[in-house]
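Work Package 3 (structural annotation) set out to generate three-dimensional models for the target panel prioritized at the project kickoff. During this period the team completed the workflow that converts sequence records into discrete structure tokens, so that structures can be stored uniformly alongside our sequence database. As a representative example, we reproduce one entry of 388 residues exactly as it appears in the project archive.
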Amino acid sequence: TKDGECVTVVTTKDASSSSSSQEISTNEYNANLVIGADGMNSKVRQCLHNAPPGTWSSNCVKSSKFQPKTYTSPASFLRIKVLQLPPQFEIPDADGKPPLKTFSQDIYAIRSVNTGPRTFLSLGLLPMKDNEAVRPTNIITRPDHGIWKITNGKSMREYFQQAFPRLNFQEGGLISNQEWDRFAKAEGTRFPPCQYSPGLAVWDESGRSGVALVGDSIHAFSPDIGQGVNAGLMDVVCLDRALAGFDDVESGNDNDTTATDKTKKQTTSTTLEANLQRYQKQHAPEIAALIRLARFGAPYQYKQPHRADRALRLVWTANVAMRLLLNKVSFGVIQPPCIILSQNEDLTFRQVMRRADRTTALLKTIVLAGLTLWAKRRFGLALFRALP
């Protein structure tokens, strides 16, 4: 490592040649197992991707499998920064009505009077435990929004006062001049694309040492499905079980009521090579299903204001509403949308997407059957008459 970042990962037989070729000061660590948990731009994963042929066992997945597969969702690359509002601030109501006092445990979404593609704003406040704490307010927009061109506090305050005329954003109001200055100068961050690494682990020819990846190093996505921390923790749980010689908690099929049973029987082979193979084989499909959920689950919840966003949000909303309706009228036979299924703690990501795919297949069948009947009634008789 150098400055806390991974420089290279090599097997013991390659360690001496690697060390002699280093012209920079590094720290060298020897370990039987290296865990890569260094984020979406993982240096450990890059080392596995760039490893020369023969570095790891021939039974491992190919080094190309550590090149992330990347997909763009409607929420990818949105920009976000946070404005600090005072605790329990009040929202003025219509004339003659008392103001609405906010509480930390409640969720709020305050929309601006501006509705244009580059002027619409929404103040998003997530629940908190401490009712006396400052309320962080998420500002999430497309990168071309006007607020990213404002770099001084006074202009930013005036912009927000015009966008939210009911809130007291005047000088000396809810927010201090210092906070406006900080917010205006803040660059914020961007939501990542949806990406995952098909490769999760490698091991050497001896089978006694290896590398495993967990967390954002194998999956990254925008926060709209609320599964980032859960997914990272599940990686750790599944790797821990694999290293102990147990099957993945997610390895059951869709009809397996014991898919999340923590008391599954331990397998006979408990070597490091076998355990890392188990982690790779059983957990990789779960990561792929997670990224599909992230792409299609709830990507339009940020009210992206571009005209194309608005049109596609109507399509997405209609799809969700139709699946919910079919779920009700079929008494649960037809599954609800995947974002609803993901809230069921007894289902794995694979099970969620398999059930959603069944509904998709059913809807496609119904549409195809309807089109076939229409074509038969409209063109079928004339077509048959024209045939010799």
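The two ends are 78 Å apart (CA to CA).
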